[in-house]
Amino acid sequence: MTKKNIIVVGAGFGGVFATKKLAKKLRAKKDYNIILIDKHSYMTYMTELHEVAAQRVKPGHVQEDLEHLFAHDTNVELVTAEVESIDKDNKTITTTRGTLPYEKLIISVGGQSNDFGTPGVKEFGFELWSMEESLRIRQQIENIVAQGAAESDPKRREQLLTIAVVGSGFTGAELMGEFIDQRKVLAQTYKLDESEIKLVLLEAGDAILRMLSDRRLADKAYQYMVNNGVDLRMNSKVTGVDENGVIFDDGSTLPTKSLIWTAGVKAKSAVAGWGFKTGRGGRIEVDDYMHAINDDEQVNKDIYAAGDTISYVDEKTGPVPQTVEGAENAAKTASNNILNDLGLVVDAKTFGDLVKYHGYAVSIGSHYTVASLIKNWNFSGFFASLAKHGINLYFYSQIRSGYSIFHYMLDEFFRTADGRNPFRGTVSRQGNVLWATPLRIFLGIFWILAAVESLGHLGNFYWQGGLASFLEIIAGAGLLIGLFTWSAGFLSILLALAAWIFNGFDISQLFIIFGSLAVMNGSGRGFGVDFFAVPLLQKIFGKAWYGQSKSQYDDLDK
To answer: Where are the beta strands (DSSP E) in 250-323?
Structure first.
């Protein structure tokens, strides 16, 4: 039996969310096949690109391999390709990997930076709307500050050490916040005074973060940046960029070699050639059900759109924003109505029926955030930063595995360097675990001695023989050689607590409990077997559970 294809183009939040929902609902329908097409073999978390650009996290933090995401969705096929054209009459889509027929199609290819035709931006500036662009910025800032530190000419030095961001929306404000944090690291690395690295935020309007309805939050973000040495310039309209820097509408200039443009978003340029009616920013216009509208004004009942690709204004909530929630709400609507088309759900739903916004949280670096959540709950600072991570985890939980969420928390809280997390590094495990090795070995020997009745009078408080003694050997051996240290440390704590409860209290039990807790920070990686065993097990079981990651996918060849 020939399967009918439901094709999703674009592996952003909208495309992945729709694919996940369709895969779940169509699992028992063997006559339908879901094909996810993207030019990359991974999903990029666009909302975290500023962290990569400013070296807060590694690039892998914002990438999720598509095989990992869909390893257990056997009705999803992955194709790494780009769409060249769409034949709406014959219901086919032509890609760089060939032509495919579709029963239903969702277009969610995302957006790209919009420089509004400003001369010189693409030649002499940088944009932040893809992984490749974030890596260019990452390399540029590191290299240009190094050059500036070595430059003796004052004017040239100032130009090299000036970093300018155009646009004070979410992306611009969050990127500037990351630069505030990164400046401290760069200044220390290249022996500079922090004030020598100038950060300039350029905004054509008269206020920052205009999408925040509570202007007090925007004012707090503004003040935080001012307090941290950012030069905020309102009503500064950029009319050009050249090799020397930024040119303003009044003829004045700002010398810099690092201009990052974040002032606008538009649809991917390829969309213009696919035969749809487009609105603001070249986005595809859709109806209330997320059906794409053809360029002849006809609603296409077989093609849907979602994410930054769409132009739509909801009567209750206004224009769909270029945010994760905007993308997911549109994807939810599109996937629901495809299922309705297939007779699997009773009612078709409009965007207004399903839309739900939980609010915004804008991080100005790793230590400060302003948040406006549901029920007009507006707050800022440390708890707002935790809320921002909570929001991210909520979004990720809808598409990611528990393993990936765990690694998100490791990357954002426990693997961060230079104090760049909400706790200012106090919970980071970047400290050298080598120094916990002697304590780990001591605890291992202690439990082995307890098991073989060699603790002297302390033996009255612990066990010799039976199951308890066997567990003492297990804990002791694991701690001694540094194998599965976290588990061995946890077992050590349980044994000490049990000894306390059943055999009476001794001060050594408190030492064992707190000492075991201390070595659970990964001390098995310091002269321990975990240094080799944990990565190997992660590789083996990760491959078995999630499959093999590839730089390109073409499941259609299977």
So the answer is: 253-255, 258-261, 265-267, 284-285, 291-293, 299-305, 310-311, 313-314, 318-319
Whose tokens are 């006559």? That residue is 31
pLDDT, averaged across the chain: 93
Q: pLDDT value at position 121?
A: 96
CA 293 from centroid of its chain's CA atoms: 32
Q: Which residue has the tokens 């499959």?
A: 547
pLDDT of 455: 86
Write down the pLDDT at residue 506.
93
pLDDT at 424: 87
Contacts of 277 (CB under 8 A, 6+ apart): 284, 285, 293, 294, 295, 297
CATH of 121-263, one of 3.10.580.10, 3.50.50.60, 3.40.50.1110, 3.40.50.300: 3.50.50.60
Compute the distance between CA of residue 453 and CA of residue 456 in angstroms, rounded to an integer. Answer: 7
Identity of residue 546:
Y
Which segments of 395-439 are extended strands (E)? none
First to last CA, the chain: 17
CB neighbours of 477 closer than 8 A, spacing ≥ 6?
444, 448, 483, 488
Beta strands in 158-212 (DSSP E): 162-166, 198-202
Q: Which residues pair with 231 in a beta bridge?
A: 200
With beta carbons less than 8 A apart as the criterion, state whether 324 and 47 touch: yes
**Whether 16 contacts 73, CB under 8 Å:** no
Relative orientation angle of helices 215-227 and 170-189, to the nearest 10 degrees: 20
Of 101, 196, 202, the closest CA to residue 147 belongs to: 196
The answer to whether 107 and 9 are in contact (CB under 8 A) is yes
> How many CA atoms, within 13 angstroms, populate the side-chain half-sphere of residue 339?
22
Distance from C-alpha of 438 to C-alpha of 442, rounded to nearest angstrom: 6
Handedness of CA 413, 40, 33, 104 (dihedral sign): positive
CATH 2.60.40.10 fits 4-113+266-357, yes or no: no
Q: What 3-state class would DSSP assign to 51?
A: helix
Domain ranges of the chain: 4-113+266-357, 121-263, 433-533
Please give the structure tokens belonging to residue 255. Answer: 């010398």
The per-residue pLDDT for 397 is: 84
Residue ranges in the chain modelled with pLDDT below 70 = 1, 401, 429-432, 551, 558
pLDDT tens digit sequence for 480-496: 999 999 999 999 999 99
Contact at 8 Å (CB) between 301 and 116?
no
Ranges of beta strands (E only) in 430-507 are none
281, two tokens? 């920013």
pTM for the structure as a whole: 0.86
